[in-house]
Specification:
By secondary structure, the protein is mostly beta strands. It contains three helices and 23 strands. A 14-stranded antiparallel beta barrel has the order 2-3-4-7-8-11-12-17-18-19-20-21-22-23. A four-stranded antiparallel beta sheet has the order 5-6-9-10, with no helix packed on it.
């Protein structure tokens, strides 16, 4: 899902479900992934490897930096540009593992696989320096705006998935078709929300600290089970058509309030978590409820018939959010377009690259593009290691998260909203052993 990290509280970020090879080729987990992650993305691929067994280990590192900028004006209220007042960087590590097995009988070929991995992330960290006013007299050396404290807002949580998958192909008239079924169980989890105001120097007036009470809330979230179905069709010797569908799933703490639809601001068209009550800033979210979208995927893998060892891919992913009432500002039907290639020179390392174009669920945020790169190495006939990198950057307009006064009843045309810029850099390493 394409969501800004601040909104992970209501629309959690997805951890990439494929292996490093497919990530490098435009996040093409439907057509080029050959690890245990195919149980979710395309279980027909369980039969895509050469040996009887495959064990894979995936290690992911993600670095997300967020900058919040405000307009800098001169004494005549003329805009001089933008300056950053918040910079946050969050680094996370994830790992997953799985096992695939295939066996050929007289007329059919059967495959089975199991996998365990992180699937959703609710994490977001916000730390803001709060500065005061020292009112230094002329000739006194010092800092006019000393740091007096910090605003800290955090959400934390992760939901894992455990999957089992099956695949079958036939050796007769259906020999060009492979079918797969995945059963995926989202495990129960806990979400934690917290706000803390820290004062490190009480000598100065704390007028710039938000008027909000510290809190630390936790909610137990129940998972769900969803089915994934996939098919591979070898249309020609050089062309393979793949398609899959993933069911929607409901994750909730028991509440029936859909925060995804009910927290949208009428002014900025984005979710709003804070508001003012009796001149005090309060956190308005209580609990969790989300219908994960149904996903439909279709893709083509083309291998040109030439002396050049190359693969070309194109994939389309559609996400549809079930809803009872449509809310302005939300697109419940979004697409993701992926293109990529792999070029494997003889006696050298493969070159993999791709581009992803993702539409946003929120109309107020423009679509984003993701650049993907990677390569791999064969240590032996049965042991391989692939590495991949994803990079994206985008920005949007939003309120100050912890304001001193009520600004939530105004649009960004009236007040100077923050410019929020996010840079996301991900690395994935996959180690596979076939035997």
């Amino acid at each position: 899902m394409f969501s800004q990290s601040f909104f992970n509280r209501i629309l959690p970020g997805e951890v990439y479900e494929g292996d490093a090879k497919s990530m490098a080729i435009g996040n093409s987990s439907l057509t080029t992934s050959h690890g245990s992650g195919v149980i979710i993305s395309n279980p027909a691929k369980i039969l895509s490897f050469n040996e009887s067994y495959i064990v894979d280990l995936n290690i992911n590192f993600n670095s997300l930096s967020e900058r919040r900028s405000i307009v800098f004006k001169d004494e005549w209220e003329e805009s001089l540009g933008e300056t950053d007042y918040v910079f946050n960087q969050n680094n996370t590590f994830n790992h997953s593992f799985g096992f695939l097995y295939q066996h050929s009988l007289k007329k059919i070929k059967l495959g089975v696989g199991i996998m365990s991995k992180p699937y959703l992330s609710f994490d977001y960290n916000y730390d803001e320096e709060v500065r005061g006013d020292s009112n230094l007299a002329d000739g006194i050396i010092g800092i006019n705006d000393p740091v007096i404290g910090f605003h800290t807002y955090k959400t934390k949580g992760k939901m894992d998935v455990q999957s089992v998958g099956f695949s079958v192909s036939f050796n007769d008239f259906l020999k060009n078709l492979t079918f797969g079924l995945g059963i995926n169980s989202l495990k129960d989890s806990v979400i934690n929300d917290s706000v803390k105001l820290s004062v490190i120097d009480s000598y100065y007036d704390a007028m710039n600290l938000a008027n909000i009470s510290d809190f630390n809330n936790s909610y137990s979230i129940s998972g769900d089970t969803f089915i994934s179905i996939g098919i591979d069709f070898k249309m020609l010797n050089q062309l393979i058509l793949s398609a899959s569908i993933q069911e929607s799933a409901l994750i909730s703490d028991g509440t029936e309030l859909d925060f995804f639809s009910n927290s949208i601001s009428n002014y900025v068209g984005l979710p709003q978590f804070f508001d003012f009550e009796n001149e005090e800033l309060v956190f308005t979210l209580n609990g969790f409820y989300l219908n994960l979208p149904e996903k439909k995927n279709i893709g083509l893998l083309y291998t040109p018939k030439s002396n050049i060892n190359m693969n070309l891919i194109f994939e389309l992913t559609n996400r549809y959010f079930k809803h009872d009432v449509s809310v302005a500002g939300i697109d419940y039907d979004v697409n993701e377009y992926k293109i990529g290639f792999e070029y494997s020179p003889i006696n050298s390392y493969p070159i993999r690259a791709g581009l992803v174009y993702k539409e946003s669920v929120f109309n107020a945020v423009s679509p984003k593009s993701i650049l993907t790169l990677g390569t791999g190495i064969d240590f032996s006939k049965s042991i391989t290691m692939d590495v991949a990198m994803n990079y994206s950057t985008y920005n949007y307009k939003y309120y100050d998260i912890l304001p001193l006064e009520n600004i939530f009843d105004y649009s960004c045309d009236v007040i100077d909203c923050d410019t929020v810029t996010e840079n996301n850099l991900s690395f994935l390493t996959t180690l596979k052993v076939e035997f």
